[in-house]
């Protein structure tokens, strides 16, 4: 069977399988239905056993054989905590900071464990005290108390006021047949968030979860593409976090069995977890990302809009690039999927891209950045240089007998023998070698790396489409590790190699790596997209809580395939104009914003009946809607860049569930269809087919302004917003400053000479504006500016001032435009002796150095302020008390 026929079978097969399983889900309401479990899967002339699509077999915790309760027999104080003698076992409780503890339970003589997900291990011990009595050993810092019960052994965490934050359950902690487990007490008002990419909503209370990534069928599976064993508990409006640092498959039962306890455990490995005290969710995420790594600042172009399809050829890429530029829809990235390769051999160009260097040059001239997909499976073909070199260096994953493991990826052919090897990324030698494989692609002009099927996938039914659990990965010390231990970190190690390719080959250029799979800490190497979603309203809705939990698990640079990737007309999985319009409205406000679609592996310009998904394919109305919202994203680029700066410094989320900012408001705890975009903008997308209005909850404690109408609302209420197809409900938190700029068609097209400060003022508003070159890593050497803006309503006047806190970057900004909403016409505007002239229009204002313009119809005041204005700008809104103007 030739390659083309194999590929088409693969495409039809995946589509048919997805259709069948999606049908099962719809019939049963469960991801694993009786229909799904019982039926074989047919696709053309192929038959698949259903075992090929079941999740890898779970290993339930046998609660009738839990470890017997332990007793603390003695303890030793350490420089950062205590070591407990528990008889045959010992425990370490180390205070890494005043609000973060590491807990390890080990057999005597075993070393404490730290996974590759941990970025920082050199913590300076905080100040703490240890006290002991007959029943307890108590460790106290200035913000956390760790109360250790001696018999039966258990741990209780309390805040500085003595309030219990978290406490071990009566079942305790220990090992059951080699499986480490921890039970915790809970009550009815505790909620749970995090664990990364999941399809079952925001709040995990009452649910069972698993951490083991795989290529899922259906998408709504227990196991999906990402494995982050970190969650946040929210109890009595106070937050804490727990990272179960275990790379084996892990499980969570969040009070599904009982309202009195929850528990987590793993298939193997050591019992190691980190406890983080809040009390704010922001505090927990900040400290968690101190431990596992903050995201580096991405290049500005990666924050733009991107376009991709399964099978773009060189001609397609050039046609799509021209389409975006001709139609004035901003875009920065164009992505090549697997069809660009020569016979699916990684790190090769095939006949569909006859002139990669010429293409790279033309893309650069038009302001596009090219990103290529790379898969970890290497075809075992003698004469293929990547395979030959890796074999000579002995860099592949092994079978238990020491031979190279052979799996199956591309080209798809179920009847063919396994034909691909997999790099052993556990070795630094392999990762370094892999980094260098990108050189020819960097040389031809690609700017980004897109890593796919890196769970890793091998299409062999008995292994559940991954590597067998007993496949062998050897580390740098010659120690052999089974795949069941390495599986969850395989992609993480690949991302490290890809990230380091930029360090080695493109020094001082900010890396852009996109991954499907990842572990805790992968955020320090790569952005995440949520894999092969479907063109359905259900998946549009699902994407919001999914992205929120990915962000809460430390991965703020996240997005979904806008419009949906997978299509099936028989099941109604097709991207209609209405669905795309609603999705692109939402997608313009995702941290990572990309339109990507499945076209059955055919060049879309060749097979004309494919349901194409570039914005202009849906007619003029949807094209205009796409242009409107994508242009808004580019206007908001300074705001978005500063949101990423906050994520880089504090772990702050870019797409935030409402509970992230408003945890004192219980009405946000289960809100799944709204989110904050940065700290000031609330997005309430329409996610129901045919809807032209929706209910919007406005969190309590602040006032909200309708972005489109200027109408003001008190928080703590639900309103109804009318929203025709072109309207995305969008609200601004009062007393916010939102930096904006003129629209560009791509990052770097125009210099930023005027920064607009879009200000919604009641009392006072502040904003710390960060700027660097947005391209290089010079910011790591201090080359950036920080300017603090303050705007305050002082009754009879509004005052603006700036504080240039850091000025180490040569900026092109020459002026600011202070844009005050809900304003009144000023009596005068001046800064000390510098009087501002009144302009008759925006155009006239833009041509002056110091001036203002009042739009009486919109009640908006524009004040043009030179960047070097050293005095406070005073906007007189009323006569002074003495009657003077």
From TrEMBL:
Sorted alphabetically, which SUPFAM superfamilies does this protein's record hold?
(Trans)glycosidases, Galactose mutarotase-like, Glycosyl hydrolase domain
Q: Which residues belong to any copy of the Glycoside hydrolase family 31 TIM barrel domain?
A: 296-641
Q: InterPro entries in the record, alphabetically?
A: DUF5110, Gal_mutarotase_sf_dom, GH, Glyco_hydro_31_C, Glyco_hydro_31_N_dom, Glyco_hydro_31_TIM, Glyco_hydro_b
A Pfam family recorded for this sequence: Glyco_hydro_31_3rd
The GO terms this record gives for MF are: carbohydrate binding; hydrolase activity, hydrolyzing O-glycosyl compounds
Query: DUF5110 domain location, by residue?
Result: 754-822
Name the record gives this protein: Alpha-glucosidase
Q: Name the species this protein comes from.
A: Paenibacillus durus
- Source lineage: Bacteria, Bacillati, Bacillota, Bacilli, Bacillales
């Amino acid at each position: 069977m030739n390659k083309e026929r194999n590929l088409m079978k693969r495409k039809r097969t995946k589509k048919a399988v997805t259709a069948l399983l999606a049908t099962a889900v719809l019939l049963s309401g469960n991801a694993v239905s009786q229909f799904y479990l019982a039926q074989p899967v047919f696709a053309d002339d192929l038959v698949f056993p259903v075992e090929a699509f079941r999740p890898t077999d779970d290993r339930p915790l046998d609660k009738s054989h839990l470890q017997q309760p332990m007793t603390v027999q003695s303890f030793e104080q350490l420089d950062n905590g205590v070591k407990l003698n528990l008889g045959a076992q010992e425990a370490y409780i180390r205070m890494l900071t005043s609000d973060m503890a590491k807990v390890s339970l080990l057999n005597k003589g075993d070393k404490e464990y730290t996974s590759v997900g941990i970025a920082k291990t050199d913590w300076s011990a905080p100040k703490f005290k240890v006290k002991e009595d007959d029943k307890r050993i108590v460790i106290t810092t200035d913000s956390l108390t760790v109360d250790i019960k001696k018999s039966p052994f258990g741990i209780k965490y309390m805040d500085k006021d003595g309030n219990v934050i978290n406490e071990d359950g009566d079942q305790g902690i220990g090992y059951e047949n080699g499986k480490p487990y921890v039970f915790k007490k809970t009550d009815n008002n505790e909620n749970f968030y995090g664990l990364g990419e999941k399809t079952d909503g925001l709040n995990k209370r009452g649910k069972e979860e698993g951490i083991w990534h795989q290529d899922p069928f259906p998408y709504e599976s227990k196991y999906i593409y990402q494995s982050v064993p970190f969650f946040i508990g929210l109890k009595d409006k106070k937050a804490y976090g727990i990272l179960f640092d275990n790379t084996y498959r892990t499980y969570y039962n969040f009070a599904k069995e009982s309202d009195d306890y929850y528990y987590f455990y793993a298939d193997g490995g050591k019992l190691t977890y980190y406890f983080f005290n809040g009390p704010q969710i922001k505090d927990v995420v900040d400290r968690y990302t101190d431990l596992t790594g903050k995201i580096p600042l991405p290049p500005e172009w990666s924050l733009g809009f991107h376009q991709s399809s399964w099978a773009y050829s060189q001609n397609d890429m050039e046609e799509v690039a021209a389409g975006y530029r001709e139609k004035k829809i901003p875009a920065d990235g164009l992505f090549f999927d697997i069809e660009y390769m020569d016979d699916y051999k990684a790190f090769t160009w095939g006949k569909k891209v006859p002139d990669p260097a010429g293409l790279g040059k033309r893309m650069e001239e038009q302001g596009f950045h090219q990103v290529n997909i790379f898969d970890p499976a290497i075809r075992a073909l003698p004469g293929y240089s990547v395979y030959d070199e890796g074999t000579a260096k002995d860099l592949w994953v092994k079978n238990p007998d020491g031979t190279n493991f052979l799996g199956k990826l591309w080209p798809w052919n179920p009847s063919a023998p396994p034909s691909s090897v997999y790099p052993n990324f556990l070795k630094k030698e392999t990762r370094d070698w892999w980094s260098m494989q990108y050189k020819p692609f960097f040389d031809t002009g690609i700017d980004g790396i897109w890593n796919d099927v890196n769970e890793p996938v091998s299409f062999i039914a008995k292994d559940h489409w991954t590597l067998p659990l007993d496949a062998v990965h050897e580390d740098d010390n010659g120690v052999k590790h089974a795949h069941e231990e390495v599986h969850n970190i395989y992609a993480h190690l690949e991302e490290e190699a890809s990230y380091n390719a930029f360090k080695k080959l493109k020094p001082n250029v900010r890396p852009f790596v996109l991954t499907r799979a990842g572990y805790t800490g992968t955020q320090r190497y790569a952005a995440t997209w949520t894999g092969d979603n479907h063109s359905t309203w259900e998946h549009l809705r699902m994407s919001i809580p999914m992205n929120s939990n990915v962000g809460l698990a430390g991965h703020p640079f996240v997005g979904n395939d806008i419009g949906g990737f997978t299509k099936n007309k028989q099941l109604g999985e097709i991207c209609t104009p209405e669905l795309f319009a609603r999705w692109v409205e939402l997608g313009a406000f995702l941290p990572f914003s990309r339109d990507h679609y499945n076209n059955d592996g055919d060049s879309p310009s060749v097979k004309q009946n494919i349901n194409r998904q570039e914005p202009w394919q849906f007619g003029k109305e949807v094209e205009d809607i796409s242009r409107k919202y994508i242009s808004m994203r580019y206007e908001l680029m300074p705001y978005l860049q500063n949101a990423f700066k906050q994520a880089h410094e504090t772990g702050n989320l870019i797409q935030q569930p409402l509970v992230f900012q408003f945890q004192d408001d219980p009405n946000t705890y289960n809100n799944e269809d709204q989110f904050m975009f940065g700290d000031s903008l609330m997005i309430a997308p329409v996610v129901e087919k045919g809807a032209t209005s929706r209910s919007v909850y406005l969190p309590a404690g602040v006032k909200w302004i309708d972005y489109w109408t200027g109408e003001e609302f008190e928080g703590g209420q639900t309103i109804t917003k009318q929203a025709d197809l072109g309207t995305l409900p969008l609200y601004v938190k009062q007393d916010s400053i939102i930096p904006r700029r003129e629209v560009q068609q791509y990052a770097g097209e125009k210099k930023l000479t005027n920064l607009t400060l879009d200000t919604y003022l009641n009392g006072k508003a502040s904003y710390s504006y960060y700027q660097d070159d947005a391209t290089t890593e010079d910011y790591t050497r201090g080359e950036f500016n920080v300017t603090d803006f303050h705007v305050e309503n002082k009754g009879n006047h509004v005052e603006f001032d700036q504080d240039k806190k850091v000025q180490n970057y040569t900026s092109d900004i020459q002026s600011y435009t202070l844009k005050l909403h809900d304003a009144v016409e000023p009596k005068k505007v001046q800064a000390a002796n510098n009087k501002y002239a009144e302009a008759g229009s925006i155009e006239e204002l833009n041509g002056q150095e110091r001036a203002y313009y009042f739009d009486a119809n919109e009640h908006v005041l524009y004040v043009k302020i030179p960047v070097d204005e050293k005095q406070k700008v005073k906007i007189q809104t009323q006569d002074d008390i003495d009657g003077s103007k």
